[in-house]
């Protein structure tokens, strides 16, 4: 039965949802998007087919809302959960903006990563304006106000701490076992980025969800986990 647990890192207390069960030699560490909380994914955890933990990054849900909020600190949140699960290998799964932090940790711990799965994002850290950040934080996600999901000041600090950087090159040099999924209806992974995925990762499994918005868990919540599973 799934349980909420906490992991400690650099003065932060990070909540994660742990499915428990057999990890089959390497659990899944899933890092969701900027407006997500772990509760969003409780029903779909069995679809991954092994023990899975959903990370609530600092400032999200019931995790600490204290800084720092730069990408290195949030990558540390991912690592804290991975280390709480195992000292051995993991499968890294990400969705949307969680991809940046998941990849930063994975690139620094390549010997522990058996596969990388990316949901509708590019291997980059993307800086956003305050106007975009406020629009996200003042909006709704999956039927509830983002203000109930993300601490506003922590969210703004996270966006303001972001710096533009490409992770394409180190990821391509590494060539991990890779799955990438995109929605062609959303602007984040455009045709040029999708072509770059095809060109730089010839062995990757690439899938398009033609009926999904950026939230690739609509209309089928288990479709992405089912692709990750094998």
Automatic annotation (TrEMBL):
Name of the protein described by the UniProt record: AB hydrolase-1 domain-containing protein
Domain AB hydrolase-1: 27-145
Taxonomic lineage from the root: Bacteria, Bacillati, Actinomycetota, Actinomycetes, Mycobacteriales
GO MF term list: catalytic activity
Superkingdom: Bacteria
GO cellular component term of the entry, any: membrane
